[in-house]
Amino acid sequence: MPHGDLAQLSAVIGGLGAAAMLLSRTRAQLLAGMAVTAVGEAALAAALIPGRDLKLLVSPATHAGALVVGVLVVGAGAMALARYPAIVPVALLAAAPFRISVSIGSQKAYLLVPLYVVLGAAYLALLVRALRRDVGKPLPALLAVPAGTFVALAGLSLLWTRDLRQGTIELLFFLFPFSALVVAVARSPFRPWHPRGLATTLVALAGLFSAVALFQRLTHGHLLAGDVARANAYTTYFRVTSLFKDPSIFGRHVVIGIAVLLVAVWLGRIGFWAGTALIAFLWAGLLFSYSQSSFVALFAVGVAVSYALGGPRMRRVLLVGGAAFVLAGAAFVAATAVNDSARQATSGRTRLARVTWVVFRNHPLVGVGIGGQPQASKDEANTKLSAKRDRSHTTPLTVAAELGLVGLLAYAALLAGASRLLFLLTRLNRPLGLGASAVFLALFVHSLFYAGFFEDPIVWGVMALAAWAYLALPRVTPTPPSPKLTEHAQDGGPRRTAVELQHQAPLAD
Prior knowledge:
By secondary structure, the chain is mainly alpha-helical.
């Protein structure tokens, strides 16, 4: 990297700014955190992109024109979102999955450009609202403290990372922007239509991706991933990627759509046959991804949702059936490994776990820094593949290798805080809380077998939604029993308190 010192300084500044933004309790603290984060982001970009490539943004007429159009679009979006801030969460979700190939001179990347445009507009809109003293409620400490700690630690770890360039990319394009995403969502006004709007958007996106995937399967073409297209030429089956470059990322987006539909069907928020037809359509597209991690996540979500909402008989069936399924899967992997190897039976995941564990064992306290695990695995495990091929596909192991035990504690605290908020949200609004919990569970389970947990904006969006809705929804406070109820109980009537009667009432939508 041409400006490594600048990148390290900017990472520390940006990490502290993002943490301050997440932890802010007052308008002044929020504005200060937003300003410092923006400075860190701009300096990281300058450190990552060589000067000759930066000049291309303003010198050729095509690049300069695109830059001007981009600024105008973000500005117009900011004006709209400042006037209608309730649109922010839905707009961010609608833009979250899409990646576009971007080239600037020697720099080439596959970036979340639509999301960055919407997020930039939402960031400016929040700035305008803050200047007007309309900033909403601060994040609950349950989420703000562990999230701020994790992001600050990740920024600080660029000082000792083994791969300065990859660490800069992780901070510039994921951790710092997604911290802003959490704040933008959590400080937006909550409306009664939000749960249905968000669920509809999520299912519609999954439907779009499955439709494209089925079209690819029928035509055997139009894949964005060149490596998958080449691999299909040498296999008896055809893997689809939909609008993504990786079948597992496509599968992850479909699984979270199915998770929302499962909750809606169980709670009667959608007709049984309509919900079943939608789930079948999404599953058909998912099938041709042949993504092991996605199917494991789908199995976990299906069992968890059915166990939570089913009766005692259903729970017994799930316990027995789930145990049998896990044992059968383990037996299949073991039998395959006898004839082949555990590495091939798990699509190389055992090797990746081994080379990642070597790094954690050698650097147990604070790891090798953000983005440094693949290069450290190549160096310390003496692998013959490129560093990119040594990237861990298990998020807890990645965190352990890159941030050590300190990072693992911050990661566990973040998961615990988000889970607690989702539990509290479920008590206030059962459909919304269970739907968000199902999505979060799917993303977490998927991250145990595939990379990209903290690089997925929907992960941060679900955590933000839990805090946002929990702060906005009205609290249900217990009321003392009325004298008539007490008198009735004394006369031999059923002894039910007002709280018990309240739980019998339909939950708020």
